[in-house]
Amino acid sequence: MIRRSAALITTLLLALATLATPVHASPAEESNFVGLINQERANRGLATLGVYWDLVDDARIHSNVMKDADDLFHSSNLAGVTTGWAALGENVGVGPAVGDLHTAFMNSAGHRDNILGDWDSMGVGVAHTDKGYMFVTVVFMKSAESETAPDPAPDPAPAAAAVAPAPVSPPTPVAAAPAAEPATEPIAPAPAPEPERVDRLIDKVLAGADFPFSLV
Predict the structure, then answer these.
(1) Quick one: how many helices (H) and strands (E) in the chain?
(2) Which of 33, 46, 63, 145 supports an S-S bond with 127, CB 3.0-4.6 Å?
């Protein structure tokens, strides 16, 4: 009876360990992406970005979701990846190596704007496939704490209203909505465009075509 109970406990522990197994990560490639992104920023006199674990977790999960689907798409819940943010952005891509993907991001205006944008932290998640390529998700964040009010003018002299520069336009940016006066008539929001889906990668690779390098 004791042996049987011990065997049952062992089985339960193994089952729990299996359920608790984290999403497979590729920390070396993730670190390479972080280094390349921060080098681009440093070369232009921009502040480098810290790595925020909460963003890393969600980036890894999304890259694995894309890998399992063998498809490229943005997160459907980018606003829920973490709390305390003022703005969020996301780059996703698929390619054969870190350097190739980073070069492709920098050669794409929207992705480059994200890399060089007004953020203070990021998280990178990489997922490898058994076909020799990788999916990557990069989540950028500007924290609400980094939003500081401008110093008050010494004298209340009349001046032209200052207009803040337009935020970066990533492929699918998500940012906190600014407060605004209610409109006199309700305006229906424009429907969000459906993300453009790429052809199945595995089909192309197995057919012997050149690697279908893609970004979203």
Answers:
(1) 6, 6
(2) 63
